[in-house]
Design a protein that fits this description.
The chain is built from 14 helices and 14 strands. The strands form 3 sheets. A 7-stranded mixed beta sheet has the order 3-2-4-5-7-6-12, with helices on both faces. The protein has a 5-stranded mixed beta sheet with strand order 9-11-10-13-14, with helices on both faces. The protein has a two-stranded antiparallel sheet with strand order 1-8. The protein is α/β, with parallel strands linked by helices. The chain has 2 domains: 185 residues, 3-Layer(aba) Sandwich (Rossmann fold); 109 residues, Rossmann fold, CATH 3.40.50.920. α1 packs parallel to α2, α3 packs parallel to α5 and α12 packs across α13.
């Protein structure tokens, strides 16, 4: 493990070390800007801690490999960016239906398609929620600092284990390449959920449980006979064409997240107690937004900042509470309107979008001008 102390480093370094602290012992990936440094560092660091690294032929193979490794008993991760994340969508659904804990870092860059590979974007936000087909309940975290790149990667591994599903970290190019202070504590200071597996047994056993939010996995070769299938399946893991089984399975997959939203959802607020206008921003945009809010406060304007750290599940409850005393929301994003949609839907308040084209860090002055217009 990285020795305790302070390091001047970047977000990709921090995410890699956070993964190791979180117990990652298998990484499969394919180089892609701007996340390639994670792959490169994992190739050196995993062998040092007894883990395994493999460079795959593409992103489809990468996510298939980490799903397989996780079912084999290893905490597993991959890292990519927009184009690669698009290729992973079908197998993200596979990880969901087979309840396989994995972590996927999607370092967002300018798009669509190849876009500007070396510049920032936030165009994958809706894809992290709705990209894979079918009814899913993803968990997506959004860091806005090097420190959070470390801390949230540990949290992502914990959430993956607790809820038995892929967990996504929607970082961005600036956060990945930004250099600032990372503080690493003693290993015992961090809560790390270990892989819970069932004791050795013989015979057929249920692979899943639809009556419990969590059931320990079994490791092949330890006496269990089970079935892991991508088709709609019963608790034994065997395929079924019965609509009632589909209902039971989906209500479990969606319900285990819905019932635990208050434990999963994290956010940060700044000056929201008396705010009549609230800016909602995440990732690197939240840093520009906070500066704009500070300047507006200096002008005497009652404005606050709400920063979702958990993008999905959406922090509906808190947005509804804020809407009761707020007349307007402003949502700046490095895209042409994605997270603004759930803000508008659940707040039922006027919601102003600020569209920053991918490729540059948002200018706080543009956000400040929109705040000022809201009070005229």
């Amino acid at each position: 493990m990285l020795p305790p102390g302070k390091y001047f480093t970047d977000g990709n370094f921090a995410a890699t070390e956070g993964a190791l602290y979180g117990g990652c012992r298998f990484f499969a990936g394919y180089p892609i800007t701007p996340s390639s440094e994670i792959l490169e560092r994992m190739s050196r660091r995993l062998p040092e801690v007894g883990g395994h690294f493999i460079e795959m032929e593409d992103e489809i193979a990468s996510i298939a490999a980490i799903i397989g490794a996780s079912n084999g008993g290893l905490k597993s991760m991959t890292a990519t960016s927009g184009p690669g994340f698009s290729l992973m969508q079908e197998n993200i659904g596979l990880g969901m239906i087979t309840e396989t804990p994995t972590v996927i870092i999607d370092e967002m860059r300018a798009g669509p398609s190849t876009g500007i590979p070396t510049r920032v974007g936030q165009g994958d936000v809706m894809q992290t929620r709705w990209g894979s087909h079918g009814d899913l309940a993803p968990i997506t975290y959004s860091p806005n600092s090097v420190q959070e790149s470390f801390d949230l990667t540990i949290l992502a591994f914990n959430s993956a284990e607790i809820y038995r599903q892929p967990v996504i970290i929607a970082s961005d190019q600036v956060i990945g390449h930004l250099s600032e202070i990372l503080t690493v504590g003693n290993p015992e200071e961090y809560e790390v959920i270990q892989r819970l597996t069932r004791k050795k047994a013989n015979g057929n056993h249920n692979t899943f449980s639809y009556s419990d939010d969590f059931i320990p996995m079994f490791v092949p070769g330890t006496g269990f006979r089970g079935n892991v299938d991508s088709l709609t399946h019963d608790e034994m893991g065997y395929p079924s064409n019965d609509a009632s089984v589909e209902r039971e399975m989906l209500e479990h997959l969606l319900g285990k997240i819905k019932r635990n939203e208050t434990k999963i959802i994290r956010f940060e607020e700044y000056m929201t107690d008396d705010a009549k206008v609230i800016v909602v921003a995440y990732g690197i945009t939240s840093r520009s937004a906070k500066k704009a809010v500070k300047n507006a406060r200096d002008e005497g304007l009652k404005v606050g900042l709400f920063r979702p750290i958990t993008l999905w599940p959406f922090p509906e409850g808190r947005i509804v509470e804020l809407a009761e005393k707020t007349r307007k929301f402003i949502v700046p994003e490095i895209n042409y309107g994605q997270y603004s949609h759930p803000v508008r839907e659940f707040s039922r308040r006027e919601t102003e979008e600020i569209h920053f084209p991918p490729g540059a860090i948002p200018d706080f002055k543009i956000i400040l001008r929109e705040i000022e217009r809201s009070f005229t």
